């Protein structure tokens, strides 16, 4: 008992010395302070980011025909999906250090090659943009990708806004949640979250202006609906 108590006291002393040394080092070392403090800062920073979300207002009727031509043949069932995947028409999207693939009920985590490149470019631009403001390690959540016709029918029972002619049927559409964005910061403030949403919206808007995608700001679903162009 005495031995265990003495060992515990010894480890506590070592821990105290390390902790005090670390505090002194961070206090005196400007580079270390600037690197670590953003993770623990709970204040709202003045990001002054434009909100371009409402300019993302493309309608399905305006681009459906073009999206259909660029996408895959509609999948009626699992067999059709397996055929598209085995033929290389669809590629799998996996969670990584730039985005997270959500657990999907009405779609599968596969999209066309061109759509995957578009998604990766959005993620890269978004990360580069917000890192300049001190928010590092950002990741957004992808909530929907390719659907079968039976998925659309099931979804329409719970979501009246879903379309029978959904671009998700063609494998070149995906939805990104603007509320479920994370960053390497201890506490994300409300203004942090607003900045992340607006910054993501601006990145998508810029790529839309470059003719790389169609996009819609879906307030009811809390997501940006994006279609490769």
Structure report:
With 229 residues, the chain is an alpha+beta fold. The protein folds into 2 domains: 2-40; 53-228. The chain contains 7 helices and 7 strands. The chain has helices at residues 2-28, 30-40, 60-70, 78-86, 113-131, 149-158, 190-209, and strands spanning 91-92, 99-101, 110-111, 139-144, 173-182, 213-218, 223-228. The strands form 2 sheets. It has a 5-stranded mixed sheet. Helix 5 (113-131) crosses helix 7 (190-209). The radius of gyration is 23 Å and the shape is elongated. The chain starts with a helix and ends with a strand. The mean pLDDT is 84.
The percentage helix is 40-55%
Low-pLDDT stretches are none
How many separate helices?
A: 7
Q: Provide mean pLDDT, rounded.
A: 84
Shape: elongated
Number of domains: 2
Kindly name the structural category.
Answer: alpha+beta
Percent of sequence in beta strands? 15-25%
Series of H and E elements:
HHHHEEEHEHEHEE
Strand runs, count = 7
Let me know the largest β-sheet.
Answer: 5 strands, mixed
Adjacency order of strands in the biggest sheet = 2-4-5-7-6
Cα end-to-end separation: 71 Å
Structural Rg = 23 Å
Give a topology summary.
Layout (H helix, E strand, L loop, with lengths): L1 H27 L1 H11 L19 H11 L7 H9 L4 E2 L6 E3 L8 E2 L1 H19 L7 E6 L4 H10 L14 E10 L7 H20 L3 E6 L4 E6 L1
Helix pairs in contact: 1-2, 5-7
Structure described in brief:
With 229 residues, the chain is α+β, with helices and mostly antiparallel strands. The protein has two domains: 2-40; 53-228.
């Amino acid at each position: 008992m005495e031995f265990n108590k003495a060992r515990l006291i010894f480890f506590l002393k070592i821990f105290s010395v390390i902790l005090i040394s670390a505090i002194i080092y961070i206090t005196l070392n400007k580079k270390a302070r600037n690197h670590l403090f953003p993770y623990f800062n709970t204040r709202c920073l003045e990001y002054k980011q434009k909100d371009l979300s409402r300019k993302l207002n493309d309608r399905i009727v305006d681009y459906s025909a073009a999206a259909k031509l660029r996408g895959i043949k509609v999948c009626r069932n699992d067999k059709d999906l397996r055929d598209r995947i085995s033929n290389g028409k669809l590629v799998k999207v996996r969670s990584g250090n730039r985005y997270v693939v959500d657990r999907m009920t009405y779609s599968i985590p596969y999209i066309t090659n061109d759509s995957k490149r578009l998604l990766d470019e959005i993620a890269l631009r978004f990360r580069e943009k917000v890192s300049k403001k001190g928010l590092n390690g950002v990741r957004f959540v992808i909530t929907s990708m390719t659907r079968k016709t039976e998925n659309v029918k099931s979804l329409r029972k719970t979501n009246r806004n879903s379309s029978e002619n959904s671009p998700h049927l063609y494998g070149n559409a995906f939805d990104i949640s603007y509320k479920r964005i994370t960053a390497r910061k201890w506490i994300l403030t409300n203004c942090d979250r607003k900045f992340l949403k607006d910054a993501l919206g601006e990145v998508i808007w810029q790529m839309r202006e470059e003719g790389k995608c169609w996009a819609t700001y879906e307030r009811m679903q809390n997501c940006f609906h994006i279609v490769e162009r």
